[in-house]
Amino acid sequence: MGTMDARALVAAAASAAQALQWDDAVALAKAALAIDAGSPRAWSLLGLAHEAKGDLAEARTALERAVSLDDLDLATSLACARVQAKLGAVGPARALASYVLLKEQNAPALRSEAQALAKSLTPDERRP
Amino acid sequence: MVGPRRPGFDPTTPIVTTGGGQVSNTGGVVETSATGGVTTTNEASQPIAIDAVESGGSRTTPIVVASATITNTGTATVSELSAAHETLQTLGDPQATEALNRVQRRAAVEVPIRARVATARANGRMPGEVPGILRERQGRITFYPADESLLPFELDRAKADGLPRDVLLIARVTKKELEVVDERGNNVKATLYTLRQERQAKLGGCFTGIVDLVDGTPHLKDLATGQLHLLEGTFKAGTVVAGHVDAGGRVVLDQTIAVGESAQARSWTVAAGQRLDPTFPSQAVDEAAAILKNPGLDDRSLVDRRSEPFFAIDNHGSKDIDQAMRLTRRSDGGFVLQYALADMAHAVKPGMALWDEALQRGASFYLPGVNVPMQPRDVCEKGVSLNAHEDHRAVVITVELDSNGKIEKTSSERAVIRSQAQLTYPGVSAFLGGKAGIDKDDHGHDVPKAVKDQLGVFQALGSVLQRQAHQRGMVSPERREMRIGLDGGKFLLHEVESDLASGLNAELSILANCMGASQLAHTGIPGIEAPGIFRVHPPPGPEKLEALRRLVGAIVDANHAPASWRWQQGEALNDWVERVRALPTTEREHALAIALQNQVIGIQVSSEYAREPALHSGLMVEGYGRFTAPMREVVGLLSHATLVQLESLKRMRALGVADADLKPLWQHLLLGALVRPSELSAERAALAKRAVELETLRGPALLTAARALLADLARAPALTDAEKKAVDATVDRAVSSGNSSRMKQKQCDNASTRLLFDDLFRSDLAGIAAGNPNAPVREGTVLNASPGRLTVLLKNPEVEVKIGREDLGDAMLLDRDGAEVRYTHKNGQQCSVLVGAAIRIRASHHDGEKLHFAIVD
User: What's the predicted TM-score (pTM) here?
Assistant: First the structure.
């Protein structure tokens, strides 16, 4: 089995995620990763599903892996930053939000979300 | 990112649908008409391939209509779910199998398309054509657009069979739009593209090819078409030859261009990868010879400037001389710049094979040891080139400026000039720096005093323009220009010394380009618009700049540099860059300064050709055109052709032709100057030809001829829709070809760099192969960090290398606003790397495609 087989499972995982069925999304994404551990999309879906389930630590691990495999997937990068922020990893979250801002081109929704996240994580230097 | 749930549909409904009418999204099911349906692919960030709709012209092959801008939400197709079932049966994962069953039962398989309108540029329009590369990896065929804001999309094998891999293709926009629902539930229109092979076979028997061994038998692979011809005899694989097909259909080899495995032959393999072809069709070769024989110097409308001391500055040995200049200092301290440009538009016109070649190629290409010109050498190195000590036609753009560089007046004219010296950048730089005289030019001729006297003016004007550029806010990060060359059969890196003269000439060239573009953008005639081509470069937005400020501040802090190195609030970016360039006092500080400036380069997007004038943020000018390389860029050729006809129209207006009559004249001037006669009716083509011939007339003769033409135009049938669109279609094609050529050149540069790396580091890996486990350690500086890789600038040789996650370790993440990368080394150790810090790396292995590096602890 190879990446072609993993693709079908990734697609199924995405369908489950689309239907907000996060347990199923996790199971299918994991099955995909058992075949192809290098699928950034599978890691991304796994992370998003974990995030939705409230399993933030697992979400962070999966999303960080996804981002390191495909650092041009800025939507996943931003999701990863969001989860890092929720877990109090302010430095990595802010760095990743900034990274999204530096790399995005003409994606206003992504830009405004990244900007808001970066801003919320930036200490107000005017504050005494 | 998961979008809102859309109404589901019966998963048994085939997703591939056909129907009539327009493409639309109706509650999650995509319907399309014409010849095809819609298929989805669900790989990571892979969007939707839409089945064929449009047919192509004679030189293109319609393959598939696809959206480069639409991604699916990641939902599965019925067939994919079926495949997933089969996979899970093999995998034996009951939990996942149950999950998959539930997915199907819930009918969650819809086609909720997430449109990502990521391509709308500053002008708010989707690009008409998207160049890119088709790659086949692990059974998947994916189109990677050159524009990184577009997502790759996957193609069905059946549709991609006729397309070559790993060479440039064009995704050309179709007339159709797809209305879809984005991740936020908004209706969004996306654009459909059809993939076309850029070039089909031609050449009329002449070709250049590379010897390729097929099952051990030598074949010749045609560079242009990729076709294989059986060869008789013994040949070394990789040998590059020129040849032709004789009357009996046999391949005849005329000349060996490069011997197999030589560095030049390897360079040719890069050219072949992009289908860069040095051979021209026989008709084009004949036309080039005719241009050489009759360069059009007997044109009595030309202004005779042969006695004026024009001169050119270029690289040593340059043969394609696009520009020459004459500079005068006025008594009030002001300047007059006459920038003469090779009159390509006179030599190469619509209807000629040379014109088609220019539109097809887009530009001349430069690889190590290899030059593939846009036009035959008889044109670009002889007939049209402004070679010194010869009479040549030129388009002279004249700009008058006051002593502060403020533009007072600009004009253009066709003239005949005789450049009196062919100078070189190093030679002029040395002269201006007082380091050497400049008695002989590059051809060994004496340099006249009238030319020498102008060099001071050249320096003065160039300096004024450089100051202006800084005042405009132009950012100039320090970049050492390195050029890959061939030496002794190997690829080597040469530093191109930045010299005073090339910097000054760049400013004059920018000025001439801006003035040409300005004349097209503002014709000065009511109701007359010129189809200009502009190079635009969107500026970074405030959020990006703020993120940049945070990043460079963090790099400064992380490297314990003084706070004064930070980009201060209220400080202009270009002022900070200038300051950072001047701050270093040690080699280490200099490396840090380079890393800081590299962050500025990293946020810039590529410039591109566009139809509407807009800011070129790299130069900080509005409305930047390209007139100064007409022999090497198709955009220059068309810009010249348009400018010359605009001048003709202005002359008619000055003679009293009423403004109301100018429009039909202008339409026909443009048709004659830009559209192939074969695209027009015979009558229209004849009228257009008469219109452009007015350009050679002056005074009463011009007025008489213009009025006669107007009378005939009044009797002629109205322009058809196709004729009305013909000019725009040609200009659009030039824009597309120009953008594609830049992409091709970039691909060539990248491929050449890989070959350079192979040569530079081959000995490093040879050490490993010989039993030495450690390749030599090389020192460098971390230039950049992303969540997936580091970029390191080596000290010697001075090249940038990437180190990916697979070469570093696990749990890679950014920190400190992007100034630090943390990861877990394969040995379990927690590691951290700072941007701007010194680093030691070594080559680790070659995976068959590229060389890998590892950090030395």
Answer: 0.80
